[in-house]
Amino acid sequence: MTRRFAVVGNPVGHSLSPRIHRMFGLQTGRDLQYEALLAPLDGFVRTLHSFFAAGGGGVNVTLPFKEAAFDWVTSCDEYAGSAGAVNTIVASGGEYRGYNTDGIGLVRDLTTNLGCDLKGKRVLILGAGGAVRGIIGPLLGASPNCVIVANRTSAKAQLLVDRFEDPRLSTANPDSLDHAFDIVINGTSAGLVGSLPKVAARAIETALVYDMVYGENAVPFCAWAREHGAAQAVDGLGMLVEQAAEAFALFHGVRPDSGAILNELRNS
Ligand code: NDP
Q1: How many angstroms separate the CA atoms of 110 and 264, rounded?
Q2: Residues 109, 96: one domain?
Q3: How far is the CA of 188 from the centre of ligand 1 (A)?
Q4: Which residue is closest in CA terms to ligand 1's atom 31?
Q5: Which single residue of 3, 130, 209, 217 could bond 191 by disulfide (Cβ 3.0 to 4.6 Å)?
Q6: CATH number where 164 lies
Q7: Domain that residue 45 falls in
Q8: Does the C-beta of 212 come closer than 6 Å to ligand 1?
Q9: Are residue 121 and residue 136 in the same domain, yes or no?
Q10: Is residue 109 domain-shared with residue 93, that is, in the same domain?
């Protein structure tokens, strides 16, 4: 029997998730339907109820509903718990378990696809929104030397850091960073509106720069980073594919060959 899955968001029409999950399905021989479900801003829970009442097997959740999904699920994994945000819900026997696969996806892209060992590295994260909350737990799990969160609104960075209570985690002002990092992650949404987050150029000299935004929206920040000496600057398409692969494994019990799908998407 064909199992039904969906990504729920608002807006959601731009989402690559249906395409990626269908590619995984073809690759692994799983019979599935995967659609993009636009939920009204005041109707996320209603949308979930009708999807699951009709036999839906699971959903991915995107902006702006990840926190609402966390409030709705009946249980959740460690990373969703520490982030207070859920991006994957699996239905099973009347229970709805929430997961957050964003950070696992980022770490897997950095380590497996880009060959970067995070152990002992100095990591700078720009931004302190929902997506950054989701990546902190898995990043700390990869044993970096330190993770510095630098956000335009410093109070928000401080709140985030306080939430994790880890001595390797602290905040800084993005304008006044005076030393270089090994890895710089742009977790702001600045690229979505064509602007660049402010950060001292010194911080990115020789760094691997990772923009969580992907495609055209990542071009300006990656170009700026290369101009200022970054060793490498990449967009977040790999993170998107890897978080989807993790969700696919939760839905179907089989891990797709995400590297092959990432190559296919990059070449298309
Ligand atoms: P939020 O709206 O929760 O947070 C946005 C963050 O960006 C805030 O910290 C905000 O700062 C900062 N920001 C926005 N504009 C600027 C600017 N012009 N200069 C400096 N900082 C700015 O968004 P999310 O955290 O949910 O998402 C962040 C990005 O991550 C999005 O672009 C999203 O597409 C991407 N993402 C990618 C994924 C992937 O798989 N590749 C997965 C999830 C997200 P302030 O607090 O001061 O307002």
Answers
A1: 18
A2: no
A3: 3
A4: 189
A5: 217
A6: 3.40.50.720
A7: 3-100
A8: yes
A9: yes
A10: no
16 assigned to some structural domain: yes
Point out the ligand 1 atom lying closest to the alpha carbon of residue 102: 42
- In tens digits, the chain (268 residues) has pLDDT values of 789 999 999 999 999 999 999 999 999 999 999 999 999 999 999 999 999 999 999 999 999 999 999 999 999 999 999 999 999 999 999 999 999 999 999 999 999 999 999 999 999 999 999 899 999 999 999 999 999 999 999 999 999 999 999 999 999 999 999 999 999 999 999 999 999 999 999 999 999 999 999 999 999 999 999 999 999 999 999 999 999 999 999 999 999 999 999 999 999 8
Say if 138 falls within a structural domain: yes
Chain centroid, CA 54 distance in Å: 28
Kindly state if the Cβ of 190 falls inside 6 Å of ligand 1: yes
236 CA: nearest ligand 1 atom: 41
- Which burial class, exposed, middle or buried, applies to 220 when counting CB atoms under 10 A from its CB (0-12, 13-18, 19+)? middle
Q: Is 198 a catalytic residue?
A: no
Residues 6 or more apart in contact with residue 186 via CB below 8 angstroms:
126, 127, 197, 209, 210, 211, 212, 213, 221
- Is there an atom of ligand 1 within 6 Å of 62 CB? no
Say whether both 88 and 160 belong to one domain: no
The verdict on residue 265 lying in a domain is no
- CA–centroid distance, 62 to ligand 1, in Å, is 13
Residue 167 included in any domain:
yes
